[in-house]
């Protein structure tokens, strides 16, 4: 090389454009909805048929739930048994002809009637619950500090980083675990040397342990006797005790604190007392969950709403579709496919 030739340093790689703190070029079929609560369980704007109002968001609710304003608004198709966190109950199936969330919409969505009385929040009706049959089609970002929920489909085009890198180096990654119907809604939590499966449920204000899981983690009646009494409204009143842990482990995090209600429930849930102030990416198509540490938010006392497990209804899981095995050891039928994803208005 001639002595006078200039040496040029390689150009730095361009900084990727971010949208919602995620690589914008890798987001497709994006549907954004504001979280209209602060530390409380997530509520979003929604339209059910010609009714505009609000909707809860529940990871563990099988199908869209509807709070009907009266007995005649939605057609009753059939009675059905459901498994709620409080036990077995009966409700009715119906169909929602037009569901809209922001720029996404779906037609003729199977639904459950949650009741014939609409709760209200700030003079707006709560129309129902957006469940797994919609959410399970997407990668779902709950950005609680920014108060936004983003449904999207992650692109696999060259140049897109793996999802585990999207929330930053401080995040932790957890495989999602299936429930008995194959829905990827749970994670593993360790307490000392013992582990248990926890349903991820932003619709619950507090985390809770079933009595069976509590016993497996070493919580005896003598230990719980010194804990405070709690009452949870989950369609019926659940009486229990609130226990404090200092040594839970989730993903790569260890020695975390967690308060849980120990009650006579059907399963255990990790609720908003753990999820709030975090960015939580539920990557349902990939069977993974990613989560950031809790952020320090000085104005974390704004508008908040109680979740479904404290004020209004129990989370619903179908029990008679598919039917239980007729003989011991017979495998469960495969879970039905989720409802087709919401169609988005315009190109994505």
Detailed description of the structure:
The protein is mainly beta and 348 residues long. The protein has two domains: 19-140, Cathepsin D, subunit A, domain 1; 163-295, Cathepsin D, subunit A, domain 1. Helix content is 6%, strand content 45%. It contains five helices and 26 strands. It has helices at residues 132-135, 211-216, 221-224, 272-275, 308-311; strands at 18-19, 22-23, 27-34, 43-48, 51-57, 64-67, 78-84, 87-101, 104-115, 120-121, 124-130, 139-143, 148-154, 172-175, 177-178, 184-191, 194-200, 207-210, 228-233, 237-250, 253-263, 269-270, 279-283, 288-291, 316-318, 343-344. The strands form four sheets. Strands 15, 16, 17, 18, 19, 20, 21 and 22 form an eight-stranded mixed β-sheet that branches. A six-stranded antiparallel β-sheet has the order 3-13-12-23-24-14, with no helix packed on it. A hairpin with a 2-residue loop joins strand 7 (78-84) and strand 8 (87-101). It starts with 17 loop residues before the first strand and ends with a strand. The model is unreliable at 302-340 (pLDDT under 50). Residues 318-348 are annotated as: Disordered. Residues 322-339 have a biased composition (Pro residues). It holds the Pfam family gag-asp_proteas. InterPro entries: Peptidase_aspartic_dom_sf.
């Amino acid at each position: 090389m001639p002595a006078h030739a200039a040496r040029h340093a390689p150009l730095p790689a361009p900084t990727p454009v971010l949208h919602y703190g995620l690589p914008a070029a890798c987001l497709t079929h994006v549907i954004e909805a504001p979280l209209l609560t602060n530390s409380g369980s997530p509520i979003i704007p929604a339209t059910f048929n010609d009714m505009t109002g609000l909707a809860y968001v529940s990871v563990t609710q099988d199908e869209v739930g509807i709070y009907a304003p009266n007995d005649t608004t939605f057609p009753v198709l059939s009675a059905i048994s459901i498994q709620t966190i409080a036990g077995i109950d009966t409700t009715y199936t119906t169909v929602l002809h037009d569901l809209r969330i922001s720029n996404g919409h779906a037609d003729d969505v199977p639904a459950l009637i949650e009741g014939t009385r609409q709760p209200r929040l700030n003079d707006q009706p709560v129309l129902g619950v957006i469940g797994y049959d919609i959410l399970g089609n997407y990668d779902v970002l709950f950005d609680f500090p920014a108060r936004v929920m983003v449904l999207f489909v992650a692109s696999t085009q060259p140049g897109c980083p793996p999802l585990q890198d999207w929330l930053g180096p401080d995040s932790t990654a957890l495989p999602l675990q299936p429930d008995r119907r194959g829905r990827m809604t749970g994670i593993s939590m360790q307490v000392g040397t013992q582990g248990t499966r926890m349903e991820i449920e932003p619709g619950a204000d507090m985390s809770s342990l079933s009595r069976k899981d509590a016993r497996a983690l070493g919580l005896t009646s003598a230990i719980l006797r010194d804990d405070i009494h709690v009452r949870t409204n989950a369609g019926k009143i659940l009486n229990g005790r609130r226990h404090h842990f200092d040594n839970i482990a989730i993903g790569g995090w260890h020695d975390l604190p967690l308060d849980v209600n120990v009650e006579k429930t059907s399963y255990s849930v990790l609720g908003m007392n753990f999820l709030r102030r975090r960015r939580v990416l539920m990557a349902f198509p990939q069977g993974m969950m990613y989560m950031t540490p809790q952020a320090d938010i000085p104005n974390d006392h704004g508008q908040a709403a109680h979740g479904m497990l404290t004020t209004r209804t129990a989370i619903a899981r179908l029990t008679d579709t598919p039917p239980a095995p007729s003989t011991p050891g017979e495998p469960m039928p495969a879970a039905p496919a989720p409802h087709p994803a919401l169609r988005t208005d315009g190109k994505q």
